[in-house]
Specification:
7 strands, single chain, Rossmann fold, 246 residues
Length: 246
Amino acid sequence: MRLENRVAVITGGTRGLGRAIAQRYLEEGAQVLCAARRPHEIDELVQLHPGRVHYQPVDVTCPKSVDALMAAAEERWGRIDILVANAGLNRDGKVDRLPTESWDEMVATNLNGVFYCVQSAARRMVARGSGRIITVSSSMSSRVAIGAAGYSATKAAVETLTRVSAIELGRKGVQVNCLAPGVLEEGMGAEVADNPKVWEAYRSRFSLGRAGTLDEAAHGAVFLACAESSYVNGHVLEVNGGLLWA
């Protein structure tokens, strides 16, 4: 119960990695507000942990919506101890063909959305003198691939935002770190594993011979939120099984 009675807000928290993090936080004793545009797969967690997990709609591209999310967490539980800024999306396209609308959508969600969440949570945490902020990046921030211009660029920017936020907020009692998962068995990772031709081309780059699980990545988010990481700040924690990438 390393997160007993801690209050966590998780964006993109109703499916995929966000939901897996929510589940691990609940198992560690936290109270969790899962935020996303839609509730998706959150009902099971609500039934398993009555009173300790709730869903809040949010549009992370809108600062007012983000502020309303943070206010909802404070109104329900009195504070925010942990923010996991996980909401993100990908739009494939080579740089000379990527529609500007797709680029703008990735910047709005993956970068602006993280900034709005970090800023809104940080103001509340600084006022209390404590807090943990965890942004979510990707192995694609440093291991680029064809067609990933927008995704890689925005995730790299998130890591830099994390480091700057860490040095600005650390002395005010707020630690800021980043979780950077590799290829996981669900979402985009599943698309790689399910395509025999793609998987054959990329399999040799997995030093453990397999993609990771959502739960393995979620363990990293627990570490960055609990007491064991009390001297970790401005760090990008890669959970990718030693991913090799040309």
